[in-house]
Amino acid sequence: VSGSGSWLVDSDSKEMVPKLPSYWQDTPHALRDLQEENSKGPQPKQALLVTADVIGLYSNIPQQEGMKVFREALNNSTFRPNPKFPTGFLMTLLGFILTLNLFVFDSAFWLQVQGTAMGTRVAPTFACIFMGWLEAAMLAAWTGSLVHLWRRFIDDIFFIWYGTEDELKEFMQHCNSFHPTIKFTFEYDTSTRSVNFLD
Questions:
Q1: In DSSP terms, which residues pair with 74 in a beta bridge?
Q2: Alpha helices by DSSP H, the chain
Q3: What is the pLDDT of residues 115-139, one digit of tens each?
Q4: How far is residue 68's CA from residue 32's CA, in Å, rounded to a whole number?
């Protein structure tokens, strides 16, 4: 039930992910966006390229909170204009997938009580929908310098920073204090003003 249920939930919800404002499908998609950004003219001299990584995303999404966000997304006609299955049915399956995930470690059986298993089909969609909600709320709550070109591939984030380095450090603290279980690591280089992303 878990495998086929996960496939079914994913098949009727994965179309929501590309509609997230931060969505990057892959490296070619990122390069097209960056090429379009470059066509608008040079970046300010003080601009910093920044990458961020969500620490242990799949296992750190609170199940009930994640399901609430997922339900709201399923009920949003903008994200899901042509549903194949009722929201209630999909949420029942998702509940089974998240709360009945048993695994064996060191000859003992364990029940996962937070997050989602990385191997299940719907996990990337579930994680992306949750992060789409979280990042929107987190960025809206930030009152400092605006973040430019915030983009994400599942748990890998890229953005351009126009403020000072001290303001960037304040923003990093804001991100890491916004949610009790979702935390970030950040990387940037003030000397080369370059980053490694999706390598």
A1: none
A2: 2-11, 27-39, 57-60, 63-74, 87-99, 123-141, 165-178
A3: 787 678 999 999 999 999 999 999 9
A4: 33
Q: How buried is residue 3: exposed, middle or buried, by Cβ count under 10 Å (0-12/13-18/19+)?
A: exposed
**Rounded to the nearest 5 degrees, what angle is found at the Cα of 127, between the Cα atoms of 122 and 133?**
130
Most distant CA atoms of the chain, gap in Å: 59
| Amino acid at the residue 185 | T
In this structure, which amino acid lies at residue 40?
Answer: K
Amino acid at 199: D
Burial 160-191 (b: 16+ CB within 10 A, else e): bbebeeeebeebbeebeebbeebbbebebeee
- CA dist 148 and 159 (Å) reads 6
Q: What is the pLDDT of residues 81-99, one digit of tens each?
A: 989 999 999 999 999 988 8
- In whole angstroms, give the CA distance from residue 172 to residue 163: 13
Assess contact for 150 and 128: CB atoms under 8 A.
Answer: no
Burial of 138 (0-12, 13-18, 19+ CB in 10 A): buried
Task: Identify which of 109, 5, 134, 142 has the alpha carbon closest to the alpha carbon of residue 57.
Answer: 134
**Is residue 131 within 8 Å of 73, Cβ to Cβ?**
no
